[in-house]
Amino acid sequence: MKFSPLFWPIRFEKGVIYVLDETALPDKLTYMKVKDYKQACKAIKEMKTRAVGQVLLVMCTFLLEISKINKTGNMLPVLEKVSSAINAARPTLPFKMLTDMVLGWAKQSLPLERNILGFLEMLKNKRIQQAKEAALLLKDKDVILTHCNISGLMPLIGEFCRKQSKELSFFVTETRPYLQGSRLSAWELKHSGFEVTIISDNMAAQVMSEGRINKIIVGADHLAGNGDIANKIGTFQLAILARYFKIPFFVLCPPKSSVKTGKEIKIEIRPDKELLEFCGRRIAPKGVKGYYPAFDITPAGFITKHIYLDIKR
Question: Most exposed among 64, 195, 199, 227, judged by the fewest C-beta atoms under 10 Å?
Answer without folding.
Answer: 195
